Fold:
Amino acid sequence: MNQLKNNRIKSLDILKGMVIIFMALDHTRDYFHANSFIFDPADPEKSNYILFFTRWITHFCAPAFSFLAGISAYLVGRKKTKAQLSYFLLKRGIWLVFIEFTIVHIGWSFNLQFESMGLLVIWSLGISMIFLAAVIHLSMKNILAISLIIIFGHNILDNIHFEGSMLWSIFHERGYYTLFNYIQLRIVYPIIPWIGVMSLGYYFGKFYNKDVLPEYRQKILTQIGIGAIIGFFIIRGINLYGNSRPWLEYELFEATFISFLDPSKYPPSLSYLLMTLGPSLVFLGQSENLKGRIVNFCSTFGKVPFFIYILHIYVIHFFAAILAEFTGYGFNTMILKGFVSTNKQLIGYGVNLGWVYVIWFGIMLLLYPSCVWFGRYKLNNKKWWLSYL
Structure:
């Protein structure tokens, strides 16, 4: 049966659910793994295959979120005029930026003094929606062209620097700034090329039109995905363009392997986007007929992505604070002023990687019933405010 006959497209929900589960693993590692406060899990000289893979698998999250948001915008737009869709995207973009600075910030830090603010993934999704609100008025051919130019060409900007320019950091370069002599602003997700990823997703939304044969959609998504994967290995292997951090060769193959598979994420390099979007497209092309309990488990999270995103941050941070309290570090050490990994007072706190996986699995099981409930509530209640969640 063609999944497009249903109200929801299952393959999109499966992928969203999977990346949410991977994301929760990384955030559990952030708050619970003892080594999080000592070294970067992607450090070739200190990491290992298992720890690096735990971090690497989560690289798929932000690109998939942004790309799938673009597809969703296209699908929503099939029932709206362009003006209505622009207004829809503009409102939700502004809403997400607001949420980043309030609810999301408090969840990450438990700090109500707002001493340190971060422009993170929810911010990038919000800004990208605002950008998309304007771009949708162009032809699909022009939308594709703009998206590809941004994604494939933005690394040309890597060698351009404007010292102390917060505006330039917002556009393309990670940076740290002080506002009002009080607030530390961390620009982690510059908007280029994230805006191009979402607009590319909007273009790909046309493959989910009802007049597109499932066989054709599956074939084209798979072929483009494989092409992107091949492109990653070529561009990354040449090591000249497409990444602000070239890979290095070490004495140990393990270290070289880690360096090769760790392209720049902040901002996302061309190599990074090919590495992550390629497999995502292949998965979309091959997952339309998947069935089973695991599929349903992933889909449950994928149907309520914003709800589970907010909820999992608070739950993970809360249990981390409990662990800190019972291991002698105190609940207050989890009231943070920046990234949890930068808080040196937590050195010595935490558990090994095996326990991180156990805690992560337990948290996902704990959150599952609430996602089932909220998914049913959304399905049975067409209230306007639910579209913001």
Remarks:
- The mean pLDDT is 93.
- The beta strands are 116-119, 175-179, 183-187.
